[in-house]
Amino acid sequence: MTDSLRSPRVLSLYPRRYRASHGAEILAMYRDTAEGASATAGRLEQLDIAAHALRVRTRTGSSDRAGRFLVATAPYALAAAGSIAAAGLTTTVADAVRDASTDGVNLLGTAVYAAVLVAGAMACLGRWSASRTLGALSLVALLAGAQGSAWLIPLLALVTAMPAAVGPGRIDCRLASAYAVITWLPSLYAAVSGDSAFFLGAIQQLGPTMLLIAIRTAAPDVRPRHILAILMAGAPWATAPAGSPIGAAIVVTALLLAWGVGRVSRRRLSATA
């Protein structure tokens, strides 16, 4: 038995108290997985342990408040990232068709957009592990200088940081999917028609944010973190220089509407209880 199999160094990444309480259990699981496996499989297992240790230190596990917030935020953040990526890809294709040339196409940036869209498709299929991996790869490419919207970086970071052991709820996944499509439609029109003036952002894309918050607030399991998650997904358009006053007004209206719908919903639940 090798030294790494007896006691992998990544165990030292855990806080001392956690390592004292759960170190033996983690080591036993590691031995069961790594014994007889290839060197690559052993390294991947150690990476999983390191990621878990980081979550324990940063309190972003599925049982922590920050972890639960990331789970609620991930589908909406990915929806916003997917909408932005789809807009970029649509515009790139439309421009290439109009110019009858692909000379101005940034291949790495286009690949990032495509990867983000595939990540969204994987999430729709419930394969969040694959989605997080694609999101992480896209994030690394953007940080390395790939062309793309700056907003993709924080959005994909939220998706990548989501705890791996759990998945978002069905309501959030469905609403996020609809949100991605609806917020992308103005971009499709602008790209196909060439009418960039139509792409006002705050009006066409924050309107769905207001509606989405109202619908989500009416759900029985709603928590403040869900509302904050949706607002974070709308941040790219709320902060657009050309539409930020309108965006701020829409966000305030959304919060007031969410408060009103949530209050009516809670009254109905209390009446039927």
Question: What this model shows, in words?
Answer:
This protein has about 270 residues and is mostly helical. It contains 11 helices and no strands. The radius of gyration is 22 Å and the shape is flat.
Derived from helix and strand composition plus strand pairing, the structural class reads: mainly alpha
The Rg value, from CA coordinates, equals 22 Å
Assembly of the depicted chains: single chain
First-residue to last-residue Cα separation: 60 Å
> Helix content range of the residues, please?
over 70%
Largest sheet: none
> What's the pLDDT, averaged over the residues?
79
List segments where confidence is low: pLDDT < 50 over at least 5 consecutive residues. none
The portion of residues forming beta strands comes to: under 5%
Number of strands: 0
Count of helical stretches: 11
The shape is flat
- Reading the helices and strands in chain order gives HHHHHHHHHHH
In a nutshell, what does this entry contain?
The protein is an all-alpha fold. It is built from 11 helices and no strands. α9 runs parallel beside α11.
List its traits:
273 residues, mainly alpha
SSE map:
Blueprint: H1 3-6, H2 16-34, H3 39-58, H4 65-99, H5 107-124, H6 128-143, H7 152-160, H8 170-193, H9 202-217, H10 224-238, H11 244-272
Helix pairs in contact: 2-3, 4-5, 4-7, 4-8, 4-10, 5-6, 6-7, 8-9, 9-10, 9-11, 10-11
